[in-house]
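Backbone-to-sequence.
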């Protein structure tokens, strides 16, 4: 369940040089409020400002639509210099930061995978996805110049997370079948997504 709602912050309350339309008092204030939306009580973004007038004596409250035109210019004046505080954007700012971090981390991880595929090591494990969307592992058992020999696991999983269990089996996870790949073939397998990850 998503708690989405609105709250509001009063950004200004100024006394103005006008008389109350109801009691003729000159204690008239202009109040401008800035509503903002929030999700789980985290402010997301500010919305359009709302102005009103309040009489200090009779407490009559008039919205922008109800107030006389002469009050309106005070409201516009206050609005013109009232900027929404930064914290009202905190939710959106946080989302933006998380997203940028996610993109950054994923680029870093891609760079690392490219480095690893170019420098194979004995015992290194590749995580594969086949055409049936099953996942399995292979282990490098031999390297001869540009050719890398991988030993396949006999086990597959329908989920990427299932590879953790296969990996935990250690040497028992791997069977008899061994296939050679050139470095270029491995790189293209990584680009195509057949190799989804490389254990460092
Ligand atoms: Zn009044």
């Amino acid at each position: 369940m998503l708690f989405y709602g609105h709250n509001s912050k009063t950004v200004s309350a100024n006394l103005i040089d006008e008389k109350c339309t109801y009691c003729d008092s000159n204690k008239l204030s202009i109040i401008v409020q800035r509503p903002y939306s929030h999700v789980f009580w985290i402010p997301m973004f500010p919305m359009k400002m709302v102005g009103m007038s309040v009489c200090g004596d009779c407490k009559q409250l008039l919205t922008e639509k109800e107030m006389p035109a002469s009050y309106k210019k005070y409201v516009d004046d206050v609005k013109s210099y009232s900027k929404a505080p930064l914290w009202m954007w905190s939710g959106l700012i946080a989302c933006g930061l998380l997203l940028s971090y996610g993109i950054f981390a994923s680029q870093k991880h891609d760079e690392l995978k490219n480095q690893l595929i170019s420098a194979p090591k004995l015992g290194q494990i590749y995580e594969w996805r086949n055409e049936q969307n099953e996942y399995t592992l292979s282990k490098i058992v031999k390297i001869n110049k540009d050719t890398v020999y991988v030993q396949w696991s006999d086990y597959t999983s329908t989920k990427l997370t299932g590879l953790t269990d296969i990996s935990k089996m250690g040497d028992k996870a791997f069977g008899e079948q061994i296939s050679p790949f050139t470095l270029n073939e491995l790189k293209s397998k990584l680009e195509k997504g057949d190799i989804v990850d490389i254990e460092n």
